[in-house]
Design brief:
The complex is a heterodimer of chains A (136) and B (321).
Chain A: H1 6-46, H2 54-59, H3 66-78, H4 80-86, H5 99-132
Helix pairs in contact in A: 1-3, 1-5, 3-4, 3-5
Chain B: E1 7-12, H1 19-27, H2 32-45, E2 60-65, H3 90-98, H4 101-147, H5 153-171, H6 175-178, H7 184-187, H8 200-218, H9 226-237, H10 241-268, H11 276-303, H12 310-314, H13 316-319
Antiparallel strand pairs in B: 1-2
């Protein structure tokens, strides 16, 4: 069991939290922008059966689930082979989009992965500190 | 009176009230001497109160209270009332008004998820109404054709009957929203009343569908801000610096927790189709992660010695007072 000074506990937590919030904010702003760009172009082509089931067609029409639809599109533009196996089975041709949008989608996907990892680290830190200090 | 600036209220006596309870509510715990002085003042201001131990329900009393009175904690704590006027959300408003502060806290966390699922259902209604409203317009045009002698009565009756049948089957279960008791045929009948347009009933149905579609569109985001209001209210209500900071840290931790969960689940299950149950499970998981994040952050804050005054540093105290 290691002993950390209370101020240090809070300092590390603060820096982690600031990082988490900055990443969450970036992810949110980024996905709102991408959502507004992509839904117009790709909904008419992709947002239908058999690629989305009835429940998804209903849920993804509304906030906040609609962001998940945008995530699927960006996943398709970033990892086309993977997404064609998982969701977009039978899709012969990836819809044409500019290279800027493709690159933006790639950056977003990696940003979301990074945010998830930092977020997991944030939860892990809380768990470790609380368990080692027996406050639970 | 009593050497301090006071406000005067008109108090409506409820069954079970007595002056001691009323004084306790507005002044908190007071010495017996002070209580006696307040009772004396109430009797001076209300000559009808002959016996301070006997006040009548529904009686109105003039009572002086401190401008920021310290109410003794009771079960009936005043909490933000959610004022929603759209009648589809009336049951939710009634639940909100009847709930305790803790229940409202929970409700405002769950409400966005419930509404997201509910609003998905509302979107189906919206889509159904929007795509079927044009059929009602066809009815109006059909009637105009009949009146202009372009079609016979037999043709008009036949086409009208077919159109209404098609309309009812397209609407499906949502037709109940338009009218629980009457069938569409009854509602869409040509009006024979004098001074009224023959197609008034049909036009009214079109307008009603348009309104319902509009409500359905906005239904998803209405209660999302309720959670922020509850935390802000709680911060403003307490005078204790430590408690204010605990509430703020817990709220921020909760936002972080639920966001992290949503983001992580989204990327882990990218490409995986989800159904209604999975959607609901994700929603519930998000709420639970938010609660865990909030509690964890609060514990870390307390462990650190609670020296930091985040509320003051961030200016939240000014915003939420």
């Amino acid at each position: 069991m290691f002993v950390i000074a209370p101020e240090t506990i809070w300092t590390i937590f603060s820096y982690l939290s600031i990082t988490v919030f900055a990443l969450i904010f970036s992810v949110l702003v980024y996905i709102i922008i991408m959502h507004n760009i992509l839904y117009r172009r790709l909904d008419p082509i992709l947002f239908q059966k058999p690629w989305f089931n009835q429940a998804e067609l209903t849920m993804y029409s509304t906030w906040p689930f609609s962001f998940n639809k945008t995530l699927q599109y960006m996943g398709l533009l970033t990892f086309p082979e993977y997404m064609k196996k998982k969701r977009f089975k039978g899709l012969k041709k990836i819809p044409e989009v500019s290279s800027t949008i493709k690159n933006a989608s790639k950056i977003y996907i990696y940003l979301q992965i990074l945010t998830a990892l930092v977020g997991i680290a944030w939860f892990t830190y809380i768990g470790v500190i609380l368990l080692t200090n027996e406050t639970l | 009176m009593l050497g301090q600036q006071l406000d005067t209220i008109v108090y409506h006596v409820r069954p079970g009230d007595n002056l001691t309870k009323i004084i306790s509510r507005y002044y908190g715990t007071v010495t017996p001497q002070k209580r006696q002085a307040i009772i004396q003042q109430i009797q001076n201001d209300n000559p009808k109160v002959k016996n301070p131990n006997h006040i009548v329900p529904n009686q109105l009393l003039f009572i002086d209270i401190p401008p920021q009175y310290c109410a003794a904690p009771t079960e009936e704590t005043s909490t933000p009332i959610l004022n929603i006027t759209k009648h589809q959300l009336k049951p939710l408003q009634q639940q909100w008004n009847a709930a305790s502060p803790k229940e409202r806290d929970m409700l405002s966390s769950l409400a966005p998820i419930m509404l997201a699922t509910g609003s998905a259902g509302l979107t189906s209604i919206k889509t159904s109404f929007q795509s079927n409203a044009s059929m009602l317009q066809e009815l109006v045009e059909l009637y105009d054709e009949y009146k202009a002698n372009k079609i016979t009565k037999g043709q008009y009756d036949y086409r009208r009957r077919k159109l209404i049948q098609k309309f009812e089957s397209k609407l499906g279960p949502f037709r109940k929203i338009l009218s629980r008791k009457k069938t569409q045929r009854q509602i869409l009948r040509i009006s024979r009343k004098r001074g009224r347009k023959p197609t008034a009933n049909i036009t009214r149905q079109i307008n009603k569908m348009g309104k319902l579609a509009k409500y359905a569109k906005g239904g998803g985001a209405i209660l999302t801000v309720a959670g922020l209001g509850v935390a802000c209210y709680e911060i403003g209500k307490t005078d204790d610096k430590h408690e204010k900071n605990e509430i703020l840290v817990e709220s921020l931790g909760s936002v972080a927790g639920s966001s992290i969960f949503g983001i992580a689940v989204g990327i882990i299950f990218i490409g995986t189709p989800i159904g209604w149950l999975a959607g609901l499970a994700i929603g519930v998981g998000t709420v639970l992660a938010g609660m865990a994040g909030g509690q964890g952050a609060k514990q870390i804050y307390n462990l650190s010695g609670s020296q930091i005054d985040l509320v003051k540093q961030t200016g939240v105290t000014k915003f939420c007072s």
